[in-house]
Amino acid sequence: MPKTARTERRAGAPAIRIPPGRAGYLRTLRDGAAALTRRRAYVELIEAERSSPQEVVRVLAALSEFNRYRIVDLLSADGVELSCGAVGSALGLSASLVSHHLSVLESAGVIDRRRNGLWTLNRLRREELSRRLAGLQRILRPDPS
Fold first, then answer.
1. Where are the domains positioned within the chain?
2. Which of 27, 43, 97, 131 has the highest Cβ tally under 10 A?
3. Are 31 and 22 in contact (CB under 8 A)?
C-alpha cells in the first residue's frame, strides 16, 4: 500500500501538508520547538529571580551605615515588628534619625512598613533581602564548569 500525504491540523494554526515519510521529522521539529520553549521559560524564570546589580548595590549601600545595620539586626528576630520609637529606645537613637534610617532601608527593599493605628510597624523582608544578596553568592561561588 503506497504512502499518501496527510494533512495535520492544529487549533489556531494553518493546516500543514506532510509528505509521506516525513511525519517523524515533523514530530522531531515539534518536540525541538517545545524543548526550546521550555528552555526559554526556564531562562526567563532564572532571570526574574536574579536581582539586578543596581538592587544589590542599593542594599549594600543601605547596610553599609552602622546604625542601619543595627536596625536590621534588631528586626532580624523571628516575626518581630517594631515601631520607630521601639527601635529608637532599643538602640539609643533619636526618633528623627531612626525614621530617616528606616526610610532608607524601606527604599532599598530591606524592610516593610505598615500602619497600625497611630503606629508604623517595621519588619525585615528576609526573602527579598536574600534574593537581592544572592548576587553576591554567585560572585563568591566558583563557576562549576
1. 20-49, 53-137
2. 131
3. no
Cell numbers representing residue 13 in the block = 494554526
Average pLDDT over residues 26-55: 63
- The domain made up of 53-137 has a fold known as Arc Repressor Mutant, subunit A (1.10.10)
Residue 35 banded pLDDT, cuts 50, 70, 90: low
Task: Give the C-alpha separation, 50 to 47, whole Å.
Answer: 5
CB 89 within 8 A of CB 69: no
Quote the mean pLDDT of the chain: 79
Q: How far apart are CA 27 and CA 139, in angstroms?
A: 41
Do 109 and 128 contact (CB within 8 A), yes or no? yes
